[in-house]
Write a structure and sequence with these properties.
single chain, about 180 residues, alpha+beta, about 20% strand, globular
Length: about 180
């Protein structure tokens, strides 16, 4: 069994790892080096996995609204929420749950930051209308994606480097939001 002490103290997110139970369990079983290698290799798969999940969520919502899925089947049909993109829900509960959590109409971005480089490497943006998934887009999945190189107007930092350049997670999030609000 591996211990918390084996993780380098220079890792800014170390203090949060015990909260991320899935990461913590993996570390305890296989060690931090294996976790780093495995998470790095997942980068290429994230877009494909998320694109499939989000497309299926949108299609399931449309089928539910169009009556192609009846009420009884809706209780048995599982779909992913658009945000956060890793949570499963019953399709008959999705609209109400998303409206309660997020409101009528939202755009929400799920930002992935590399723990080692402290740089943003992918952004998944989800759009919902009336609590139902409507659309999504990705940034950072291609090497030449210019969105990650946009600069913060006041700070001058590139979006991708904001987590590394700001030491406070709240200030980091606010700076990222400043840039993302301007995405058209």
């Amino acid at each position: 069994m591996h211990t918390y002490g084996e993780i380098d103290d220079s890792l800014r997110t170390k203090q949060y790892l015990p909260i991320a139970r899935h990461v913590w369990r993996i570390h305890k079983e296989v060690g931090w080096d294996v976790w780093e290698e495995a998470s790095s290799s997942l980068r290429g798969s994230i877009e494909e996995i998320m694109r499939t999940r989000m497309t299926e969520s949108i299609m399931t919502s449309k089928e539910l609204i169009d009556g192609k899925i009846n009420e009884e089947d809706a209780e048995k049909t599982i779909t992913y929420t658009l945000f956060p993109p890793a949570i499963l829900t019953r399709s008959d509960l999705q609209q109400g749950a998303m409206k309660l959590l997020h409101g009528e109409s939202i755009d929400s971005s799920f930002i992935l930051v590399d723990d080692l480089t402290e740089e943003v490497f992918t952004i998944i943006n989800c759009h919902m209308e009336d609590g139902l998934p409507a659309d999504f887009w990705f940034a950072g999945v291609k090497e030449d994606d210019e969105l990650l190189d946009r600069r913060h107007m006041r700070l001058g930092y590139k979006l991708r480097e904001i987590p590394k350049r700001t030491k406070n997670f709240t200030k980091c999030a606010n700076a990222l939001i400043d840039i993302l609000k301007d995405v058209r």
